[in-house]
Write a structure and sequence with these properties.
Elements lengths: L8 E6 L6 H11 L4 E6 L2 H8 L5 E6 L3 H17 L5 E6 L3 H19 L4 E6 L5 H4 L1 H5 L8 H24 L11
Helix pairs in contact: 1-7, 3-4
Length: 183
């Protein structure tokens, strides 16, 4: 599907594979068809290409795993080095909100201390595999794993918030990374 150059562009990326970035991106695309949501994956070349020549916001997807946390911090550092004013938010996948807030706090403390930066908290996606709702027999016949209803609801709420925030901002004028603002 071609990307609409006039739509707010959100880059969804991860510091490492295995965080569910593609599933998160697909669910966000379904929930917010008016936004241009790009799955940048976890390879720097793909992330860099998705970000240039400009983007509205980046969602960094992570889990509570220490390697994922470290990789997310490294990704944030690289993005900050290359796109200095890029709006960044952290989304913690496969985690209840309480644990997600702890993960976010770990990354935010490191970003604040070492980078002098603040990263937003996009929320959490609960560990809610679709198998729990369908039963193991039905789920075994599915070709692609998915999210259960609680996870889908969390991502729909995030998509709605982003759509509302970016819609209001676009009415006041573009603030995409790399765009010139006429004040």
């Amino acid at each position: 599907m071609p990307h609409d150059p006039g739509a707010p562009r959100i880059v969804v990326a991860s510091g490492m594979s295995g965080t569910g970035v593609s599933s998160v991106c697909a669910c966000l695309q379904d929930a917010a068809p008016g936004m241009d949501i790009i799955d940048a994956g976890s390879k720097w070349a793909d992330i860099n290409e998705a970000c240039a020549p400009g983007f509205t916001r980046m969602l960094v997807v992570t889990t509570h795993d220490i390697i994922a946390i470290t990789s997310s911090y490294a990704l944030i550092k690289i993005v900050r080095d290359n796109f200095t004013d890029a709006p960044l938010e952290l989304l913690v996948n496969a985690s209840e909100e309480r644990d997600a807030l702890k993960t976010y706090e770990r990354i935010q403390v490191a970003c604040s201390h070492f980078l002098g930066e603040t990263v937003g908290f996009a929320g959490s996606v609960p560990n809610d595999p679709i198998e729990q709702e369908l039963g193991e027999k039905k789920a075994a016949h599915m070709t692609r794993p998915g999210f259960g209803s609680a996870a889908v609801m969390a991502l729909q709420n995030l998509a709605t918030r982003l759509d509302e925030e970016l819609g209001a901002t676009m009415l006041r004028g573009s603030w995409r990374h790399g765009d010139r603002r006429d004040l």
